[in-house]
Each structure stands twice: as structure tokens, then as C-alpha cells.
DNA sequence: TAAATTTCCGAAAACGTTACCGAAAATTAC
DNA sequence: GTAATTTTCGGTAACGTTTTCGGAAATTTA
């Protein structure tokens, strides 16, 4: 199948290329019949407009670029799926790149997408923010970028974030109210904004309830099950097991629980657990894991809406949207079944 | 920051655009000093070549398109990450689209990528294969496409697949050898090639060991934990619980195990389990789940290599690569600890 | 029936590159 | 010092579209 161009159609029908172009773009004047004829023969010839040429002359692509740090955990997978689902309805296609939690790769990805003329960019930044200046320069150039998650509320850009502080506070308070006397927080990375905010929520709850300082602790881990396991090994070695853990995410909780079980601890009888950023496995675990659920779909949709607004109106204001979730209490964090 | 073009640089330095172009493309003749000067001033001006224009005139993009059915399960996430990791080293960037197990969306994605002039395409097809003709036409046009997984070995295209039959056979045989007398296979979708092949492996093992027909069964499920749970509910209702399950993947096993536990069954004491396409949670489950591990990284790498070979040499032959994995036996499928 | 409009279309420049062709400049050979 | 080479470079036509401008043809109006 040869690749036809607008010229081939023009020649075949003895019209000019501009007329053929007009047939494909509603905004120009063209007689109904010629348009129909052109579209019909184009269809027959199997002509497909070349989007590269289109982009070069129009400077828009109806493509949206998305950069996420990873999609090995289901959170960003869901985000991407939701973004795509929404944007396709609006006539856009979504190009995804993942930066593998690597700032340099993230920058490369963003540059690739921008220079491929995506009409806008949705970025979930990796840990650290060395690239922020680049993004802000692009935004100053008039380029539409919306951020998602992992970004401090104070940065003056359009963004959609989760109210980590508030829900971390709720989760912690739940453990306190259940009567647990010694509560440790397994936090993520110190320089990851979501971790930091969750730590703040944890502390806030502790302060509100005048929890004795010696009875709570914040232990930095990563975001992986393995790291949850390692922490527990240390704690067991030091005979320092509390009666409840609040974890930065479900995977860390999963790892920690496994290690505790292996060492003869019962969950939740001996040690209670709460996770965060609920994943599908939370309710499949034994015992099912209490966790804070984020409105993934809605967060993605909001981000996409913000972006489209900016694409359509260069002067749309900068907006920060803070989302709320829900706290699903399951067996892993209740003292007795009656409370359920 | 204004957007500069090659012309701006040419004007500023009083050289021709062709010279500037030459400075950026090693293959032409240009004096060392002029080249250095051009690159230097380009750098200073903040000039970035426009890849769209480049693509239009060169008809190559150094981009590779990837279409996967989903990446909510970690298998395809890992595939994408591995592809990217490998291809970036080779100077390519990877554009990912996911088709959400939808054939129409898959076709759209492929078309978008191709018309955006990715130099080649790696496709993990969705269930069903209505699009196969489209792909084969493109391949006939000389377009490099490599398939990954979920495609029948007989289709005459370049592809990398896993030896589902063989490893499904091993997994089943393991259960038989452990002495389980009644073994059910929770298969995926009937028209999903990987499911089909796993069913064949299951049957082959049964036949080899002359397993009594009334003592094994193949039950079609989906690929989700929820579906594993539903199946168990039915079986419990019918008082038809075998002493071992071989599941199409880990998630189905996870769901099934949860439901059984809720109903007072112990794993593996009352019912044993084996999963497939090992995920991170396999060894984190209680009990840890026996599962067949696929060489995800290598499969991705092989696919990328095949593709690059085709990109570089139009006449590279069609190849089918069948990969093998490993079977990790864990507590979920052993009769007594001594065997471990 | 002429004038005024409106409708339709073609020519050509533009988008930012690459790549071919030939010519000028520099180098080498004699 | 000239001829023969070799380097280096400029002009320009592509690549496949969109879009502006102007004008011819068709239609309406007077």
C-alpha cells in the first residue's frame, strides 16, 4: 500500500491541494459536493493525513504528554488509565513516558514530549525537584503544564494534590482512638513531598492527643515491601516492637506484616497496621488492611480538566486543587471485632 | 524565551542554513572551527532542533512505539520499564500507549504511533486479534513491528513469547507429584492465547500421569482477584473444593485463597495453590505462593533487539523467540515442610 | 441586464528541517 | 605557478500540510 499525500488526491481530481486540504478541515469554504467527492476518493485511495506535516504547519498535535515517576505500583497506572480515558473523549491522545524515579530521565522525557509538540504536559515529578526551573520556564513561555501529586502546595503552578496531611492525621488518630499505646510511623523518603506531608499529619495527631513522646517514633523507609521487612528485622533485633504501625503505603505495610508474622506476631492482635494509598491487595490481605484510599480517577480527571482549560485559554489562572479521600477501616487495625 | 530556528543561527553567523544543519549532523563535510562556532552560538541562544521538521524531512524519529493491553498488573509495567531501559541506551525514546484490553483502542494507538513516525512498534496484543490484518499490512509495507506475548506461535511475524505450555505443564506436574488427588485449573479467558496454552500444559500433565478425568477440572475465570473469589464461592456452594488449584495468575490465586480462608480452609493444609506470571506479592503472601516466574526483562530486551535488527536491516528475517522461566516452589503447594 | 454580493477555489508562502548539486576555497602535486 | 584534488560551503528543492490573498464564477439584488 503506497503512502498517498494530499497532492496525489489533488492531481487525481484535478483540483488544487488547498481544496483538498479544505475538504479535511471544516473551517474553510468549500462546496458540499467537492468536499464529498474529495473525502470519498481519499477514503478509496486509503489516504491518511500526515500528522507530522500537520503539526509542523499548525503547531498543535491533539496529543497530551504524561510523565510519571513509575508505574510499577498501581497508583500511577490508574492515573494514566484515567487520564487516557478522559482525554480520549475530548479528542486527545495520550503519550506516556516514565522516568523511573530519575530526575534526568524525567527532564529528557518532558523535553521529548514538548519538542514532539504535545499540546500540554501532565507531570508527576520524581523525588527532588531539580527540574522545577525548567518547567517554570516553559510555563512562562506559555506552555501548558499541570502537576500531579508529589509537589509542594506552595509552588506557583497548576496542580492537583491529595490532602496527605489531613488523611494521615485521620489514620493516626484512628489508631490512637483504638487505644494503641505505642505507635510507629514507617515513612517514605524524607525529600518526597507526600511522605513529608504524611509525617506532618502523624505528628499533628500525636500532638493533639498529647501522646507521650517516648511512645511514638518516625522511621524512614522507602516505598517497597522489602524496606518494610528490613525495618521490622531491625526492630525485632532491638526488641522494639510497638503495638501499631502507620505505614506510608500498602506495600511497606505488607512487607512489615509478613516479617512480623514470620516471627510469631499476630496481626492485629499483637500489632495493628494502617496503610496508605490503598491498592487492590489491601482487602485481599490477611488480615485485610486498613488504608487511606485516594480518588485516583478524579485526581487524574481534574488534572486533565485543568490542562485543557489552560490549552484553550492561555490566560486561565493558576489553580491548586486539593483532593480528599476516604479511610477504609479493616481488620488490621481494630482491637476487637465489635468495633467493626 | 523565543523559539529559535536554524535560520536564526544562520543569519546571525552569516552562513547558510545548510551549514548550520551540517553542524548538527555529523555525516556531512564541515570545517571543524565553523562547526564548533555554530554549536557554541546555538547553545548560547538556547536553540533546540525541531524534531517535527526533522521527522518530516528525514522520515525517522528515533522513537519507538509500545502498545500494551494494560499496565495495572505489574507484568506489562515491568516490560515497559525494561524496554525503555534498553532502548534508551541505543539512542531511542519510548512512547507508550495502553489499550485497556480494547481492540479498537489498540488499533487507534498503533495508528497514532505509526503516523507519528515512530521507527518501529512493539505490540502486546489485547485479547482477540481482529487487528492482525492491519499489522500484517503494515509489515508488508516494510514497517518494523515485533509482537510480545499473547500471540499464537503460528502467526508469521516476529515475536517473543513465553513457553506457557511447558511451564504450565511443570507447575501441574509438581502438584501431581506432591500427591494432590483432585486438582482444578482456574484458567483465564478462553480466547486469550496465553490462557489457552496454559490450559494445554495442564491437560498434558494430566494425560501424562493418567490422572482420572473426574479428578481434574478446568474452570474459566478472568485475570482478576475478584474472579478468583467468585469461583470459590460457587465451588463452596456446590461442595466441590479440590485439594489443589493451579491458577492462571497470582491475582486469581490471591482472590481464591482469601475466599477459602474466610470459609475456614487452610492453605496449603486443606487446599494447595500454584500461581503463574509471578508478581512481587507471591512471596509476600501468607503462605508464600508458588508461581512460575517469567523472564520479563529478557523478554523485553529480546523484543527490542529483534525490532532494532528489523529497523536497521529491512530484510532481517522473521523470528520467533520462545522464552523459558523458572518455577519457584513456596509453601502454598507443598504437603509438608520436609519437602521444602 | 448590470451591479453588487457571495461562494468557491487556485497560487503560493510558510512551518523547520535535510540532502543533493555544484561551485568556491583550500590544499596538494607537479 | 598552474593544474588537479580535496574540503568546505551556499542555493535550493524537497518533506506534507495549512492558510492568506486575491480573483473567477456563481448567485443575488436592484
Overview of this protein structure:
- The structure is a homodimer of 340-residue chains.
- Chain A is α/β, with parallel strands linked by helices and 340 residues long.
- Chain A has three domains: 6-49, 434 Repressor (Amino-terminal Domain); 61-162 and 296-324, 3-Layer(aba) Sandwich (Rossmann fold), CATH 3.40.50.2300; 164-294 and 328-339, Response regulator (Rossmann fold, 3-Layer(aba) Sandwich).
- In chain A, 44% of the residues lie in helices and 15% in strands.
- Chain A has twelve helices and twelve strands.
- Chain A has helices spanning 6-13, 17-24, 32-45, 51-58, 74-89, 103-115, 132-140, 164-177, 193-208, 225-237, 250-262, 296-312, and strands at 63-68, 93-98, 120-123, 145-148, 159-162, 183-187, 216-220, 244-247, 272-274, 291-293, 320-323, 326-328.
- In chain A, the strands form three sheets. The first copy, chain A, has a six-stranded parallel β-sheet, with helices on both faces.
- In chain A, helix 2 (17-24) crosses helix 3.
- The longest helix of chain A is centred in the C-terminal third of the chain and has 17 residues, at 296-312.
- Chain A starts with 5 loop residues before the first helix and ends in a 12-residue tail after the last strand.
- The mean pLDDT of chain A is 92.
- At the A-B interface, helix 4, helix 5, strand 2, helix 6 and helix 11 of A face helix 4, helix 5, strand 2, helix 6 and helix 11 of B.
- Chain A binds a DNA duplex (30 and 30 nucleotides) through residues 5-7, 15-19, 21-22, 24-25, 28-31, 34, 49-59.
Amino acid at each position: 500500500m503506497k503512502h498517498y499525500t494530499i497532492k496525489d488526491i489533488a492531481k487525481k481530481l484535478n483540483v488544487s491541494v488547498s481544496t483538498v486540504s479544505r475538504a479535511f478541515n471544516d473551517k474553510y469554504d468549500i462546496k458540499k459536493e467537492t468536499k464529498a467527492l474529495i473525502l470519498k476518493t481519499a477514503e478509496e485511495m486509503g489516504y491518511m493525513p500526515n500528522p507530522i506535516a500537520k503539526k509542523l504547519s499548525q503547531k498543535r498535535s491533539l496529543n497530551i504528554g504524561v510523565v510519571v515517576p513509575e508505574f510499577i505500583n498501581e497508583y500511577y497506572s490508574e492515573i494514566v488509565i484515567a487520564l487516557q480515558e478522559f482525554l480520549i473523549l475530548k479528542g486527545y491522545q495520550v503519550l506516556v513516558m516514565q522516568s523511573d524515579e530519575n530526575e534526568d530521565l524525567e527532564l529528557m522525557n518532558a523535553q521529548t514530549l514538548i519538542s514532539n509538540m504535545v499540546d500540554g504536559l501532565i507531570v508527576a515529578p520524581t523525588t527532588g525537584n531539580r527540574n522545577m526551573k525548567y518547567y517554570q520556564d516553559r510555563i512562562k513561555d506559555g506552555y501548558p503544564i499541570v502537576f500531579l501529586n508529589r509537589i509542594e502546595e506552595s509552588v506557583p503552578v497548576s496542580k492537583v494534590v491529595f490532602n496527605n496531611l489531613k488523611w494521615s492525621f485521620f489514620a493516626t488518630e484512628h489508631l490512637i482512638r483504638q487505644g494503641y499505646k505505642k505507635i510507629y510511623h514507617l515513612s517514605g523518603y524524607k525529600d518526597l513531598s507526600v511522605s513529608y506531608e504524611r509525617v506532618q499529619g502523624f505528628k499533628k495527631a500525636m500532638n493533639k492527643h498529647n501522646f507521650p513522646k517516648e511512645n511514638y517514633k518516625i522511621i524512614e523507609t522507602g516505598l517497597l515491601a522489602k524496606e518494610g521487612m528490613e525495618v521490622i528485622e531491625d526492630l525485632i533485633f532491638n526488641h522494639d516492637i510497638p503495638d501499631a504501625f502507620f505505614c506510608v503505603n500498602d506495600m511497606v505495610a505488607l512487607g512489615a506484616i509478613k516479617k512480623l508474622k514470620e516471627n510469631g506476631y499476630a496481626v492485629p492482635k499483637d500489632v495493628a497496621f494502617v496503610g496508605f494509598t490503598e491498592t487492590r491487595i489491601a482487602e485481599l490481605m490477611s488480615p485485610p488492611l486498613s488504608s487511606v484510599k485516594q480518588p485516583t480517577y478524579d485526581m487524574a480527571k481534574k488534572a486533565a480538566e485543568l490542562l485543557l482549560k489552560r490549552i484553550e485559554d492561555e490566560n486561565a489562572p493558576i489553580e491548586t486543587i486539593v483532593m480528599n479521600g476516604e479511610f477504609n477501616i479493616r481488620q488490621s487495625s481494630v482491637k476487637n471485632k465489635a468495633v467493626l
